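Pasting as-is:
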Amino acid sequence: MYMLRRTSDGLFYDLVKTTGFDDAYGAAFQSYVGTVLAELLKPPKFEVLAEAPYDLGKAYRKHGVDWTVLDATANLFIECKTKRLRQDAKFIVSGTGLENAMDTLGSYVVQHYKNIVDALAAKTKWLPNEKPCFAIIVTLEDWWIFTPPIVSMLDDSVTRHLAESGIDRSILERVPFTVASIDELEIGCQIMAEIGIEPFLGMKSGAEHRGWSLSPFSIAKFPEQAARANRRLFGDEFLSFGSSLTNGSR
């Protein structure tokens, strides 16, 4: 167990300050999210589109939405973020550390919306359609957004960043957002694979459940599908990886 922790999570602290680490780490996480989507949301029911850079004018290139998923019910735009919640913000429900963390997360949400606004305006390779749209910001670790004060902090931050970016607040209704950890997304994707994007995220985005974290929402509202979900996705690959490490250390 200690060997696996040292060679997985532990490596982060060895490498985090290395030049170029942020870009490589972010790209690896984005790639993993794409692997999850391809594994769980298969054609012909779903179409998964990778990031497609586009030009705004002659000298301005944007990378675009990290992943876009389409089915017969809706469009889903996904942004991947590896930043971790600071240790001092994990154990309090108020204070500067938590406020700063929610403000950072709010800036990520609005960054995602900037790309979505371009997509809706037909400036990207994705073709706009009449189906409802949803946004997810998927994080590597859980940010524990489940109490009204924390949800309120995040909402305030998103509203302010939208205003500063000149984006109409109506985008929040047109494309509701959800923040989810990769663990939660893996379960959510398995539920969406059974029932579709809109039946799942449409209910999650409603007034009653908007402040819920994705895990308790999934378990409470879709208990049968959640019970069937595989919580050890790619478990064989992980065990193989661990076995190769322990064998090599003998």
